[in-house]
Amino acid sequence: MSRMVYTDTPQSGQTQLPAKLREFYDRNTLENAVEELLIDAYASQKSLPKFYGDGVRFSRYERLPNFDDTPLVEGIVPASTDLVKTDVETASQDFGQFIEFTDKILVAHEDGQRLVKTMSDELGKSAGESQENLLFKAISGGSNIIYADGCTDDTCVINSKAKLTTTDLKVARLALRNQLAKKYTSIIKGSTKVGTQPIPATYIMFAHPDVVADLENLVGWKAVETYAGAGGNTLPQEVGSIDQFRVIETTLVPIDDSGSESVYKTFGFGMDSFARVSIRGKKAPQFIFKNVGSAGSNDPLDQLGSSGVRFSQAGCILNNSWLVELHSTSSFG
Q1: What confidence tens digit (pLDDT) does each residue in 67-115 have?
Q2: CB burial class (10 A; 0-12, 13-18, 19+) of residue 252?
Q3: To bridge 205 with a disulfide, which of 80, 95, 146, 245 should be the other Cys (CB 3.0-4.6 Å)?
Q4: Spatial distance between the Cα atoms of 296 and 288, rounded to a whole number of angstroms
Q5: For residue 67, how far is the Cα from the chain centroid?
Q6: CA of 146: how far to CAs of 114, 160, 173, 286, in Å?
Q7: Torsion angles phi and psi, residue 102, rounded to 5
Q8: C-alpha Rg value of the chain to the nearest Å
């Protein structure tokens, strides 16, 4: 743990905030870049009641086989059919981080009280991206993986520097359609609004900007600017569409950099393919500010304070057949 101190000579375990200004200081704090939070809107949402534990079980009954190939025989009772139930279990977990500071930071640092707001702003950005990353990790590594350009594993993808092709996207779309994956017809509204926003029926695809740059060169790509009535029905961070997928661009999709080439994961999915789980009242990040002197006997001289954030969350794949994961390299990676 690193403690933020107001000094030019930090000690072990301390982070320096210079006490002496050697150059003109602009009090307009530069904004840190943060990725827009997107994938949460496409997850099935489950909020657990308080005092009912932190685990949740999702259940579905598998499709019954058709029975149009064997007519009934008079007086003969046919064999019974089994009703098969599949369970998916997960548990919500807590995540958080905090910044610790000394009393002198609040009274002597050039940012003054504005530093408290800056801490909460940066903690909020970090929490939001952490929530997004957790969902991507939850849906990554499913059983429905398509390797680019005819490859059968990541080694082939790396060695051949395989890029996504129109055939790969067709295979992904057919994998969803043949398993009767439902297309999205609405998404959860962003911001603090409650409810959903209707959209034309579609499958959704999340891709890294490097992969999107390759998709733009494929036959059948339609840039969002060419949509009829562009602007009114576009999704947040949507950049185009191809083969019945609306493509959402984000830098937060997982990338495997362990080999000689980066392997990008692109996700295509239908409704109810994955879920986000939280405990009621703890979905949004909770900000926790401990003022200097609030620690009692643990801080006998009122020297320490902290600003932190925490949230509770879990994610899981509900139906592997309704979510495809495409592995490829990029011409621009």
Answers
A1: 988 899 999 999 999 999 999 999 899 999 999 999 988 887 777 778 8
A2: middle
A3: 245
A4: 17
A5: 41
A6: 49, 15, 11, 38
A7: -95, 165
A8: 25
